[in-house]
Specification:
The protein is built from 2 helices and 10 strands, in the order E-E-E-E-E-E-E-H-H-E-E-E. The chain is α+β, with helices and mostly antiparallel strands. A hairpin with a 2-residue loop joins strand 6 (54-55) and strand 7 (58-59). The longest helix is centred in the middle third of the chain and has 45 residues, at 65-109.
Length: 171
């Protein structure tokens, strides 16, 4: 156990310029220490654990403040974590759409039937994906749109993720 001096400003000194009682000792062994006007004594035990001296038997340090702050912070932390997981899910769906659009554009450019191209796109992404294929003599364009909604929040609004790919039409 070590003793550390802590500075206080005049009226902020715990208990005024009087005596300090150490609560870690039994009542019969309490020592009284006279403080100078700008000093108080703080008792520290163990690594990182502080135990603060009391004035006239009352504690002037707040106990349990870390527990209270953690309890107040946990709901906000859970909301931030849920939003981050939702964002990761949306980015994953975006990457799936990009890959599916490229594969479908290559298939459509080769001259495969449009129904088969849509099936290729839906197999590479989600079954409820909206696939739009535009084919002309020079280029073939495929656009895929997917609505992403978290599994844990069906009442939340969906995020629309889309990707498009263009390929030269083969003769």
């Amino acid at each position: 156990m070590r003793v550390r001096r802590t500075s206080f400003q005049g009226s902020e000194q715990p208990g005024g310029p009087g005596n300090v009682v150490f609560p870690h000792r039994p009542r019969s062994q309490h020592e009284r220490v006279t403080l100078r006007p700008a000093q108080a004594i703080r008792v520290t035990q163990g690594p990182g654990l502080a135990r603060t001296a009391a004035v006239d038997g009352r504690r002037w340090a707040s106990r349990g403040s870390v527990t209270a702050e953690t309890a107040a912070m946990l709901p906000a932390l859970m909301v931030v974590l849920a939003a981050a997981l939702w964002a990761i899910q949306a980015v994953g769906a975006q990457l799936e759409c990009v890959d599916a659009a490229r594969a479908a554009a290559r298939a459509a450019a080769r001259g495969e039937p449009l129904d088969q191209v849509r099936d290729v796109a839906r197999s590479a992404t989600r079954p409820d994906a909206q696939v739009a294929v535009t084919r002309d003599t020079e280029t073939t364009k495929v656009q895929i749109t997917v609505r992403v909604r978290p599994a844990w929040g069906s009442s939340l609004p969906a995020v629309h993720v889309s990707a498009s790919a263009t390929a030269d039409t083969e003769p």
